[in-house]
Amino acid sequence: MLVDVADGGLLSLSAWPAGELPARVGPPAPLVLPLDGDSLEDLRWYLEDYLKHPYAAYAERGSDVAARLPAWGEGLFHAVFGAPESRAAYAAVRARGNQVEVVIRSESPELLGLPWELMRDPGRGRPLVLDGVALTRGLPVSDLGGSFPAAEGRLRVLMVISRPDGRDDVGYRMIARPLLGMLDAVRGNVELVVLRPPTLAHLHRTLQEAEPFQVVHFDGHGVSGGAIVFEKEGGGADRVPPEKVARVLADGRVPVVLLNACRSAEVAPRLVRGGAASVVAMGYSVYAVAAAEFMATCYERLFAGDRIADAVTAGRAHLALRDERPSPKGGLPLADWVVPVHYLRRDVSFPGLRTERRGPSLDDLLDRPREEPSPEDDLAPVGAFVGRDDLFHTLESAARLQRVVILHGPAGVGKSELAKAFGRWWRDTGGVDRPDWVIWHSFEPGLASFGLAGVVAEIGLRVFGTDFASRDPGQRLEAVRRLLRERRLLLVWDDFESVHTMPNPVTPPLSAAELDELKRFLHEAGTVLITSRNPEEWLGDLRRVEVAGLSAEEAVDYADRLLEPFPQAARRRESPAFADLMEWLDGHPLTMRVVLPHLDTTGPAALLDGLRGTAPLPGHDTLAAGLGYSFERLPEADRRALTATALFHGVLDANLLDWMSGLDDVPDRIRGLTAADWTRILDGAAAVGLLTRVGRGMYRAHPALPAYLMGRWRAEDTFAEEHAAAVHAKLSAYSALADFVWPRLSGADAKALVLLVRMHARDFGDMLGHAVEHRIWDRAQCIAQTLDRYWEIRGLTEEAQGWTDRMRLALEDADGSLSDKSGCWLFVVTAEAVRHLKAQRIEQARDIYATVLRHAGQDVLPTVHHQLGVVAAALRRWDEAGRWYREALAANERLGDRAAVAGNCHQLGLLAQERGRWKEAERWYRRSLAIAQELGDRPGVAGSCHQLGMVAQERGRWEEAEQWYDRSLAIYEEAGDRPHLAATYHQLGILAQDRRRWAEAERWHLESLTIKEQLGLRSELVATYHQLGVLAASLGRRQEAERWFGQALALAELLGMRADADRERDSLDILTRS
After folding, report:
1. Potential cystine with 495: which of 285, 444, 759, 1051 (Cβ 3.0-4.6 Å)?
2. Would 997 be classed as within a structural domain?
3. 532 and 599 together in one domain
4. Is 19 exposed, middle or buried (0-12, 13-18, 19+ CB in 10 A)?
5. SS3 at position 358
6. Domain count of the fold of the chain
7. Could you report the per-residue pLDDT of 188-208, keeping only the tens digit for each?
8. Residues 769-814: pLDDT tens digits?
9. In this structure, are residues 989 and 1005 in contact, taking their beta carbons and an 8 Å threshold?
10. pLDDT confidence of 360, banded at 50, 70, 90?
């Protein structure tokens, strides 16, 4: 059925049976749309923004918009088929049972851009596009020039994979890679070629010189300002107008263009005008995972001979079936089947591709584990290969610009599997002149010759055949050199560390002359990908790419695939210990492949104990073989020293190990080792792939290394005595580190020290647990102080409370009385009280301080009085709060405690601010600021600047307020202090509202909302919900404002925040009356 929509809004409907001319159905009628501007904005927001912040009122708004989609769809259906004769024509077409297609045609980009995909037949209860109806868009025939047919024979697809920002590009998932798995069913009829490099000039040359392509697919992450984004020759973005691209495609006679870039629909009509027969694009921003699966489904149907219109319909159905998309709250459903759009001027299909399926469908690939590949294929994967799209792009660029690339990293991190996957990728996408010219050469001892002669022989025999062996060595070398200069091959050299940096003792080493010969050959060998546990610095100035573990998202995907055959594992994955296990595994593929399947019979906590070396580890022999090969390459003394590092659970720090080795009672194996000694030992372990350098003398261990080292250590007679001494030394070392870090977390180095604590967090927790268990309270207190500040900065309130409960249980007797370790107890309970105050749990905080007063000595009374002032202020007892603060201030001034004086002044400023005494508040804040600057207390400086910004804002000094906020923001961002960042974002949002900068205000409030939701700062969320309500009301979004105020009221009542609850009721009353 053909729907013509004129610029003036008149709609004409024609029935167009196959093989006949269109027949007008009834007279033209005005188009009455069910979606106004606000509705279209709601739809855009739902598809593009909702899952970025799916919290509170936005969660309600998202659900509300999703619930309105059927009504909008029925309204659009009525707008097109509402007249009786139109409904009858539609019913007749559906009754024939043939394929149905609705074509929307208009000269107006705005009318074409409407979400026609929503159309829904009320009588069938489903959107048309999910009920077997294809929907396409077209331009008036008079507006089109000549088109060109698709060439017969095999289908050739040219992929333009543009990622100009490299790893920073959004959603870094290549569409082409899932397609390769579907090509087996049509092998010989479909050729997928990747444009290398992805530049406009190279696209023009390729289309002019090559056998014609029927499809050009732009696999990028977005369309920028109505332009299509290519890469420049040397890297960077090249934004090209669609008309220019259309001319290049027309010159190359390309009929089909696919764009999975966000909002690419705006360029689709311009490509159609330029001659493309069919263009598939995206009407809105789209999630990378959705674009990948949609396009993969389209290709599957295209390869099966379907029309493009029907392939698009199949892709939509797939998105509707698999509708979960990533969000901060995990996977959530999104109706983004409406996003893809199809523009056409002529039907296109490739019926010559029809073939009996030999491989699995896309749904099979997504739903079933992959079959094991043939072991005879050098490039065959071991198990499933997932992710690594960022490294693929890095390798693509490096192979083009630097030619020789060294992939280096620890044993089992996936270097060989990545190299094999990249080899398959080049083999299957035109990266080499012939598919068998990806030549794999393993340098694993016993498998091949290490010398140049072995490499040359393998290349020559693969390319030239058996006659190559009859030539003399000089002829063979020259023939291979000429081949590599003139033709495109990819050489993959695996396990290269065995050649020189980690030679096997049973293999004769290469001479200096042979190494030099190999090195010279490498620099003239064309494109070579080398894998090694070592960066192989001896090879000179080559491109080196470090391979780390899988990203968190990739690791989850890999775990899903590994555990799919093990049904019992699903239940064990629900345990909190599974998250700890995944964190320990650190995305390390080999260790995951060996360890995770044991979840079928073993709990995650037991597996984690095995990795730590405190319990048997299933699959240990498999992991130990690779680790042992590396470990035995180290000198004996280094192996003995490294064994003691089995105690460490996060990173190995040369400086910390230096301090630990200087203690009197450490084991002899590490006694007296200096930082330089440890750096040499750890560098040696990194060189053989046991560790990974992370900077500043720190190294991350292979996840199975602690278990391996602990196993070796346990086998020694002196283990028990040495282990006890080493644990004691480790506790001393971490206590010393905590003593060093804690006072400096408020200084200029806070950012670096927060990162340091984060890297050592596992071992800090391990030693805190040891100190609590053995009642070593002085050590427990110094570690707990540092961790408490770290937890505060990172917003880890649940972890802080968990440790508080554990420590209080150990410190207090059954009747609640205090044990003899009052210093540690006092710190723990006062820190807990502070958290209660921040969470508006005033009564709990007051009860704790009342208990503290009964036990505290004179030296801590000023601190207690200060906090009692905070409690009184929270209860809005201003005079009482003032008395407590002044008592504390006088005592601290007598004691000369400048830091405490700054805190007292700050609280007196808050008190004056609450009472509207702006000048007094400013005086107190400036006094607090001056002391904080004098002491180098950066958090104190940031807090005073923040409050001075609020005072300036209250007095209408907006530019001054912004300057104060910017100062505090810079300090909090540097330290990564997320709770205080949320507070500053909140104030910047209010400031933007005061200045009527609505979009800016919403951005700041959403930043604040996200942090508070993620950290569970419920009492602070009340204010954010309120301000988002105020913002929505200011913009006339009444329903949204009502939701936000309602959410704020409900939460305030739940938390007992009476004043806030009263404010929300007043806001709702005002909204009702307005």
Report:
1. 444
2. no
3. no
4. exposed
5. coil
6. 6
7. 567 888 898 899 999 999 999
8. 999 999 999 999 999 999 998 988 887 888 899 999 999 988 886 5
9. yes
10. very low
- pLDDT above 90 covers a percentage of the chain that reads 42
Last residue of a domain, one of 815, 838, 861: 838
pLDDT tens for residues 376-424? 578 888 878 888 888 888 898 888 878 899 999 988 899 999 999 999 9
Q: How far is CA 113 from CA 282, 338, 343, in A?
A: 11, 12, 11
In single-letter form, the type of residue at position 908 comes to L
The pLDDT tens digits for 301-312 are: 887 878 899 999
> What is the band of 366 on the pLDDT scale with cuts at 50, 70, 90?
very low
- As a whole number of Å, the end-to-end CA separation of the chain is 47
Q: Looking at the structure, do residues 832 and 729 belong to the same domain, yes or no?
A: no
DSSP string, 644-696: GGGG-SSEEEHHHHHHHHTSTTS-TTTTT--HHHHHHHHHHHHHTTSEEEEET
Output b/e per residue, 853-867; b: 16+ Cβ within 10 A.
eeebeeebebbbbbb
Amino acid at the residue 163: R
Enclosing domain of residue 286: 155-367
| Residues 906 and 947: beta-carbon distance below 8 Å | yes
Contact 922, 951 (CB under 8 A): yes
Are 121 and 235 in a shared domain?
A: no
**Domain presence at residue 899:** no
Peptide bond into 197 cis (omega under 30): yes
Residue for token digits 């495109």?
488
1036: amino acid identity, one letter: G
The answer to whether residues 716 and 729 belong to one domain is yes
Give me 831's structure tokens: 């820190």
User: Using CA atoms, how far apart are residues 942 and 163, in angstroms rounded to an integer?
Assistant: 39
501 and 644 co-located in one domain: no
* Same domain? 414 vs 500: yes
Phi, psi (degrees; rounded to nearest 5) at 522 = -60, -35
d(CA 427, CA 439): 10
Candidates 183, 186, 151, 154; CA nearest to 277 is 151
Alpha-carbon span 176 to 191, nearest angstrom? 12
Q: Is the dihedral of CA 983, 989, 990, 995 positive or negative?
A: positive
Question: Strand, helix or coil at 259?
Answer: strand
Closest C-alpha to 704, from 617, 580, 644, 639:
617
In this structure, the answer to whether residues 355 and 208 fall within a common structural domain is: yes
CA distance 31 to 682: 74
Torsion angle of C-alpha atoms 628, 630, 635, 641, degrees rounded to 10: -70
The residues pairing with 216 across neighbouring beta strands, listed in sequence order, are 158, 257
Query: What is the C-alpha radius of gyration for the chain, rounded to an integer number of angstroms?
Result: 34
Which residue in the block uniquely carries the two structure tokens 């990908």?
Answer: 529
Residue 877 to residues 497, 657, 689, 1019: CA-CA distances in angstroms?
72, 52, 63, 20
Three-state DSSP at 824 gives helix
Tokens of 1031: 């913002």
Sequence-separated (6 or more) residues with CB below 8 Å from residue 758: 790, 794
Rounded CA-CA distance 614/903 in Å is 46
